[in-house]
Design goal:
With 323 residues, the protein is an alpha/beta fold. It has nine helices and 13 strands. The protein has one domain: Phosphatidylinositol (PI) phosphodiesterase (TIM Barrel). Helices cover 27% and strands 15% of the residues.
């Protein structure tokens, strides 16, 4: 089913969070929030890491071509101050390299094969027979993948992704070297604010686990919408405390420690308070059709699937209104 594309006037989203939504709703006038009008978004998580090498241009191009409404990705910063699209603090999980992103120059990161450990249907898996890695070496043109170039299998810069998808909203998560290293989150967030201030795009949502880094980012780029940080999410779930200024969405796991988080009750409460709800999986629940259908039924505004093709087919089969 073809549908209207998401208007580039929007804002975009991604952040990880937890908690249980049993606290009373906040008695406050809901802020105006265009993200509440964008439902149901197929927000390809890392470009759809079960279907393509995560956080690569190959994955992003593929996800947008199949109908995904948004791209979800993560950013780390290199030793020479460049923002690259990488989930982990190290390059070990997905590439043929080793070591921290923060200790490498952009040129060193660009030399890596970001499809080295990709196994179809399983994302990045180490230690299997070489035949299990059909895209290994595509970064160097061996094998060749029709319709794509070797550079589509590199680690991309955020600047390259923004340029390649000028009309596709993007969800950006600020990453750091470790949860305890707040300075590394702030460093990456500062570079991100500088880039977005020059770029001028506001069809984005910026998120992070780290509330301090988000507050610092907001002080530098207040025009860019955000999702709630971890502490802000917990405070909202448990105490009904409104999140900081600039927050337009709560991005929550399906479950946390076995407790349902993405429920119809929580979604309804967030909507009453003027916030969109986007749901991520990443081990919090299976990326499968029954779970996708269950989350759609909660009234969530967006879903971040590892299998965007599957979610797209479900949305189309159900005839669900799209942005």
């Amino acid at each position: 089913m073809r549908r209207r594309r998401l208007l580039p006037v929007l804002l975009s989203a991604a952040t990880l969070t937890l908690g249980v939504g049993l606290a009373p709703a906040v008695a406050a006038e809901p802020p105006q929030n265009p993200w509440l009008e964008q439902r149901v978004l197929n927000m390809a998580h890392s470009g759809g890491e079960d279907e393509a090498p995560m956080n690569t241009m190959y994955a992003f191009r593929r996800a947008v071509a199949l109908g995904s409404d948004m791209i979800e990705l993560d950013v780390q910063s290199t030793a020479d101050g460049e923002l690259v699209v990488m989930h982990n603090a190290t390059v070990d999980e997905t590439t043929n390299g080793t070591g921290r992103v923060l200790d490498k120059t952009l040129d060193e990161v660009k030399e890596l094969d970001a499809a080295h450990w990709f196994v179809p249907g399983r994302s990045a898996v180490h230690g299997l027979d070489p035949s299990a890695y059909p895209l290994r070496g595509a970064r160097f043109g061996r094998p060749r993948v029709e319709g794509f170039k070797p550079k589509d299998f590199m680690v991309p810069t955020l600047r390259e992704v923004l340029k390649a998808f000028p009309a596709t909203p993007i969800n950006i998560e600020i990453k750091g070297t470790s949860d305890a290293d707040t300075a590394s989150f702030i460093r990456t967030g500062t570079l991100l604010a500088q880039l977005l201030n020059k770029n001028g795009r506001t069809d984005l949502i910026v998120g992070s686990f780290n509330d301090t880094a988000l507050a610092d980012f907001h002080s530098r780029a207040p025009q860019v919408p955000m999702s709630a940080g971890r502490d802000a999410m917990i405070n909202y779930f448990l105490g009904g405390v409104k999140p900081p200024a600039g927050v337009v969405a709560f991005q929550v796991p399906v479950t946390f420690a076995g407790i349902p988080v993405a429920t119809p009750e929580f979604v309804a409460r967030a909507h009453r308070d003027g916030y969109a709800v986007h749901v991520w999986f990443s081990g919090s629940a299976p990326d499968d059709a029954p779970t996708y259908n269950r989350i759609i039924d909660t009234g969530a505004d967006g879903i971040m699937p590892a299998k965007p093709t599957l979610l797209e087919s479900i949305l189309d089969e159900r005839g669900i209104e799209r942005p």
